[in-house]
Amino acid sequence: MIKLYGMPLSPFVRKVMLVLDYKELEYENVPTLPGDESAEFRAISPLGKVPVLDHDGFTLPDTSVICRYLDRVAPEKSIYPADPQAEATACWLEEFADSKLMENCAGLFRQRLINPKFFNEPTNEELVQSILDEGMPQCLEYLESVTPESGYMVGDGLSIADFSVTTCFLQAQYGDFDVDGAVAPKLRSYLDRAFAAPLVVKRLEAEKAAVEKIAPGLL
Q1: Model confidence over 108-152: pLDDT tens digits?
Q2: What CATH number labels 2-77?
Q3: Which fold has domain 84-214?
Q4: Which of 68, 79, 175, 208 is in Cβ range 3.0-4.6 Å of 109 for a Cys bridge?
């Protein structure tokens, strides 16, 4: 039995859920907020972060490590390219998405949605403008330079790069941001394909339903 600790609205939790869905692995989501101070959670997440995977009693924190583990235990639909250079590229794009891109997408998400609607705190408009003027344009410029004209981010199949980049921009949409096709046409076309994929559509529907149960009216 697989259990995944974390909140569905977390981009890192979503990334693992997408991988689980893609591999058609059954799992139970255990809603857990990041920073949970309970002794039980800290025993399986020393840094207090989500997600954490529990696979028949074997626990594992960290999104990237979890995805790698899932690919080893369910290798039939691998999310890592067989070619060494393609695999390295996919892993690098995962790292870029999880760090630089997520910093900006999650910043908009927090300032425009979570702070005002969940914590009843005002949006830091100066921070939002900095993300829009500086952080996000840098990310878009780089991703536009590496996004192919068609198909997937790396190679000819779905990879960890696709899961990582897609979940970031889904998070940005919650923060009222979408990629302008006039600024990044290849990336815009890629995201249109990614957002329309049945795997992503189904995950978003389940995500919104789960959030509505936990925090009615948030979305």
Answers
A1: 999 999 999 988 999 999 999 999 999 999 999 999 999 999 999
A2: 3.40.30.10
A3: Glutathione S-transferase Yfyf (Class Pi); Chain A, domain 2 (1.20.1050)
A4: 175
Facing residues of 55 across strands? 2, 58
Is residue 81 within 8 Å of residue 182, measured between CB atoms? no
How far apart, in whole angstroms, are the C-alpha atoms of residue 83 and residue 179? 30
Delimit the domains of the chain by residue range. Answer: 2-77, 84-214
Token output for 77: 């639909």
Instruction: Provide the token pair at 133.
Output: 């003027």
Identify which of 26, 32, 55, 64 has the alpha carbon closest to the alpha carbon of residue 45. 32
Q: What is the pLDDT of residues 146-188, one digit of tens each?
A: 999 999 999 999 999 999 999 999 999 999 999 999 999 999 9
Q: Identify whether the C-beta of residue 186 lies closer than 8 Å to the C-beta of residue 148.
A: yes
